[in-house]
Specification:
homodimer; 130 residues; mainly alpha; Arc Repressor Mutant, subunit A; 3-stranded antiparallel sheet; 11% strand; elongated; DNA-binding
Chain lengths: 130, 130
DNA sequence: TATAGTAGGTACCTAGAGGAAAGCGACTAT
DNA sequence: ATAGTCGCTTTCCTCTAGGTACCTACTATA
């Protein structure tokens, strides 16, 4: 798979999924998963409301859904304390933490190139006779 | 930005967007953009129908939409030849090609860890009293 | 008494993404 | 005369992610 600089020729062999990274993208980059993983990694172990407040705009329903999915995928570990009031803690797993260099790479690319994207958008919007 | 192992503390300062990579994710990892970029990079310059056939499951309407978006973001270069029948060619831009190591990193992580995700899902589904 | 906090679950609703299918304009090949 | 090619565009339809609002049981606090 990683036999060359990254872009393999596997796309030619699989017409259905022309991109060998699509499986990862669904797991890691579906909506809300990156902010959740990022927050859990920067702040360590967090309770539900803490996570909710740090992310700021997510609704509890969606947060629950995404946390369940991330737990099922082994990216997040959930610890339930049967107290009153109930206490639940979430932390990033070893598998989730292994994404750190990837996210670093992504943030690096963003810092270096996001303004180029902005520039390209501006050029497109002004030059193209919409 | 890249002052530590990758996960910066920027999340704490921005409650609205708790993840500094969210901007990139919308550009690079929104639906269909990864297969398109991947195919354009592996096959070089391609015509509309060629792209359509290589991806296989995308509809022309969606392909047009994504190509316009990628063109506006400066990731793809579109060349129109006013012939009959019309001929249009798409190729990946320099900016788009700069994503190659990132995609390589992603494919590498996938090759190393996708089976762990599968295992975690299986464990979750069998252990959890759904 | 009543309110707040905790970790969600549930029912309902809407907006938007995406799929299916047809068309179009200008020409060519059969 | 008919069908086909190319790169879309348009219309219609469906599906679902996500938002809003309200609910639980139990306790501590005012």
């Amino acid at each position: 798979m990683a036999d060359n600089a990254g872009w393999t020729a596997a796309a030619a062999t699989d017409p259905q999924l022309a991109c060998p990274t699509s499986g990862v993208v669904d797991i890691v980059f579906s909506r809300w998963t990156t902010p959740i993983l990022w927050t859990l990694n920067t702040h360590g172990r967090l309770r539900f409301v803490e996570l909710e407040r740090l992310i700021g705009t997510i609704t509890p329903k969606v947060l629950t859904q995404r946390l369940r999915q991330l737990e099922r995928d082994g990216m997040v570990v959930r610890t339930y304390h049967p107290e009153v009031p109930p206490r639940v803690e979430y932390e990033i797993s070893e598998l989730g933490r292994s994404l750190a260099p990837l996210f670093a790479h992504l943030a690096e690319w963003a810092a270096a190139n996001l303004d180029k994207v902005e520039q390209a958008r501006h050029d497109y919007d002004t030059d193209t006779p919409r």
